[in-house]
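User: Before I run my own analysis I want an independent prediction to cross-check against. Here's the chain; please return only the structure tokens and, at the end, one sentence I can use as a sanity check.
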Amino acid sequence: MKFGVVLCPHCKAARGVRLKAKTGTCSKCGKKIDLSKARIICRVKTEKELALAVMEYNIKNTDFEDIYEEDKKLIKGKDGRIVSVGQKKSYNVYDEVASVLVRIRGKDEKVIAAANELCRHQMVFTENDLFEVLKRIGIKTPEDCQKYIVKLLSENVIYEPKTGIYKCLGGN
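Assistant: Structure tokens:
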């Protein structure tokens, strides 16, 4: 068995690791995990099995919908702009994500990067979140956004832990 699923001792999120590694970084809270002290939840042979094991554990042990709604209440201002707690300066997460996409060529690659960036910023996202970013790169209709979501789901780039809530399989 080359891979395993461990829990972050700080935030309790599941993370996939190579069993030969000494440390890992939690994709949720960013803290270092000493793998020699971490409890291995399960062992798998392939990266695909690893992604599915992490996804399965997180779905069973986390209510993503509650986390998503709670996060939105904490950081979304009255005007719909995202306001980071503890900072006077506000920013729009959609503009932030779209600014990263400028360096990427090809619409399909931009859509994948948009989903990954949304997960990096918010952990989970909705179709509306993705559409707000895609509007900024030239995809103007909700129908096109829905087609991209179907494509991302079929290519196992994202999954849907709760109806209408999406998360990236890449561990973001």
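Sanity check: The two ends are 23 Å apart (CA to CA).
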